[in-house]
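Morning run. Coffee first, then this:
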Amino acid sequence: MTRHAGARLGRQAARLLAGSGECPVVAGLTDAELAGIEAEFAFEFSADHRAFLHAGLPLDPPGQGGHWPDWRYGDPDDLRARLAWPVNGVLFDVEHGTFWHDSWGPRPAESKEAVSRARRHLADVPVMVPVYSHRFVPSGRGNWGHPVLSMHRTDIIVYGADLADYVQNEFGPAPHRPGTEAPATIAFWKDLVT
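And here it is:
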């Protein structure tokens, strides 16, 4: 697959969403806006997510907030919190003793030390970027075509084989929920998919 395939996939997802009528879609983010977001929040959009947002910026319908990240006018603290959601969810489960990744070695007896050690390990995992609510795709300009993950703490499921499949699953004329057979592909996060 080429870089252009990622852009085509993102545009296809944008067309599917716009055609669904599920939410307002306004003028897409410009290259300068996308670069500014990436600089401010220290990540890069994947090729498909970038093309999706360039084709049109989905927003929540009036009176319904909190689902689509407003990358143009959203509160920077809210956007940072959304970006931190996956890691913070894992840390919550570590703190409460319900999760420890085998690759981290023996779990410290003290919860505070376990969280500290987990935080150091999680600093090296791929950044997950919110698409909608708690649905995420991996960051990285060279990435595209990865499954969209629904992430709630360490309860992670595949919600679409890729961005276009996700939009069809969540917003299509006959939405269907998880059950896709697509394997998760992102380092660390794929280990948590149930």
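The mean pLDDT is 93. Good start to the day.
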